[in-house]
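Box 3.1 A note on notation
Throughout this textbook, protein chains are presented in two layers. The first layer is the amino acid sequence; the second is a token string describing backbone geometry. Keep the layers aligned when reading.
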Amino acid sequence: MDSAVQQGLLSPPVLALLGLCIGSFLNVVIHRLPQQMERGWWGDIAAQLEDESLWRRLFPAATRRPACIPDAAKAIEAELGRLTPLGLARPRSRCPACGHQLAWHENIPVLGWVRLRGRCSACGAGISPRYPIVEVATALLFFAFGARFGASAEALVWCAAGALLVAMTMIDIDTQYLPDDLTLPLIGLGVFAAGMGWTRVSLADAAWGALWGFASLWGVARAYKAIKGLDGMGEGDFKLLAGLGALLGWKLLPAIVLLSSLVGAAAGLALIALRSHRWAKPIPFGPYLAGGGLAAAFFGEPLTALYFPTF
């Protein structure tokens, strides 16, 4: 590709426009992916309930399986069968209140929401301002990556990573899920990009970053459970840090954890002080890990130089 053309196509404003479009799709992912996961879990539950051999293995002393168990499996399958098939591409976007299918002009990022004044054109139900916020946030991230990394493959790698991080952040806030469908591609992206020479991280550093990112939080979670007898962190957090380690390399892991912990602690204390959160209620750590990783992408090298002087 001609250098001038590449500079134009990968300029920050063009990447920002791409970010608006990607952000619109991310709203679909944020809304539908957890529902797809939950439907899958219920389907698995029904399959397990129907498996008589599993019942025999678990309860060998039982004379017979209660009739309510297969009945429950059939009820679950019946309810799942009544649901409209749900994918990321189909069905087309609809108003959750009345089912009105959005026209193409109502789906234009940000402008569609502004034109509708935040309300469904059919029933007048409010449309959350979070939709344009996600679109604008994604556009700003893409712009920042273009400005930080220039017209390069590295900028595109980080645009892809940023999209995954935005989706994970919002899903974790809503549901406290960090889906494998998002965390594992982040790990693969970091390792693959390093192997292709698209980032400033060597393949070895990316692999060690993924390994130590997962192992460090796994160790903290195991220690917490041994002391408190409670799960303090989910496996999705381990995989998210592994993905950030693959993208940034193992040397930036302390900076990521430090930045995310500081932001998480400050946000948690602020929520408690405002009495909008209780001590006993868990706070999703994924958004703070994602924020720490993004901060480390821009400012991590000077911070890392403090404890790795030869970095």
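Residues 15-116 form one domain. The mean pLDDT is 87.
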